[in-house]
Amino acid sequence: MSFAGTHSSGGSGACVAVILLVGVSMLLSPPAHSQIVLESDRAQLTVEGFANLTLATLDTTDDLQNLDYGRIDSGARVLGRLSLADGPMLGIRLSVEGSDENTRLTEASILLFDNHGRIEIGERMGLPDVLSGYAPNNFQFTSAEFGPASGPSLDPGGGLQTGFFRGLLAEQIGPLAGLGTTAALFDDRSAKVLYVSPKTHGWLVGASFARDADDAAVGQLLQAGITHESYRQQDTLRWGATYAHGQAFASERDLNSVGVGASVTLNDVWMIGLAASYDGTSRLPESSVGSFASRAWGATASVNFNSGPWTIGGYCQYSTSEGNAAVAANDRLAALEVGASYRFTTKWRVYGAWYRFDFDDDERGASTTGNVLLLGARATL
After folding, report:
1. Domain that holds residue 268
2. pTM of the model
3. Which CATH number do you get for residue 182?
4. In-domain check, residue 202
5. Number of compact structural domains in the chain
6. pLDDT, greater one: 67 or 2
7. Alpha carbon of 199 to those of 262, 290, 338: distances in Å?
8. What Cα–Cα distance (Å) separates residue 279 from each residue in 174, 181, 274, 333?
9. 265 in a domain, yes or no?
10. Through-space distance between the first and last CA atoms of the chain, rounded to whole angstroms
11. 8 A C-beta contact, residue 127 and residue 242
12. What pLDDT is attached to residue 8?
């Protein structure tokens, strides 16, 4: 099997630098930590990094899509915190992520936080995430725990398995793969103001506002989410909802998207999640005739099992949305993924997955089915 791809010297250089940084840290840092922390009485500096190498083979009923491919995704994040005299903390967070094709500054924000929560101003993703560490997103309920925890992932809508598609198929499946997880555009990275509450009696609330979303079809973007966690011995139940409202340009309908979900962790071993999202006729032309068949929605279900260094799991997904508004039928995606990973240390592991999809194109009235086999390795600081 041969692997090839398109490479740019700038992106490749940045990826190599991050891989070297990760490799050195694996040799020099204590094995119990996945980040580097430097601190004094009032200041703290946290440095985190990751590198994911993924090889894939894609086999579909569309011969033009079939290929063998390899890619590197990497990133580094720096969080500086300073305790002010009155008690609150001031922080600055910078994040760079890239692949073998491009590298970009994905976050540059100023933070102010204390016991009342956290405020961030700057370029960053919309959905409130953890302050440090590459932990699962608080507002996502279905996941592929065996895959990478940062960068393009194997989660539903994570972009790694579908990132190997090309041309029109990539443009059509990409949005469908994001339905059924959270409200739309919660991975939007644009300049915004964000607030995350402290977790109180199991409740966590977050909200953000952007004047101009990264999505070219959306201007102002308001996002919000709420979750609740309850515990019983080693079992955890988490449930919640997300919402997004985006101002559309020209003659399109505004974005109104809602997501709901729940997950349960049993005995710290089993993780079961269910989620659904509904966009309705958002972002369709005002002139299009609305019917239930043209409304966008999706649902996902995932199961993961941890046993020592092994994680085994999978998810299934169904989503549908309007492809060509002039055609009565809908684009539809049915997908199944199963995979496993093995952790050698807290700093690196290997993973593999099989992704099976069936895509119906409303415009061509044809289906494309295929399989993506993936094998990768992940290293962190």
Report:
1. 54-62+126-380
2. 0.85
3. 2.40.160.10
4. yes
5. 1
6. 67
7. 17, 40, 33
8. 15, 12, 17, 15
9. yes
10. 30
11. yes
12. 37
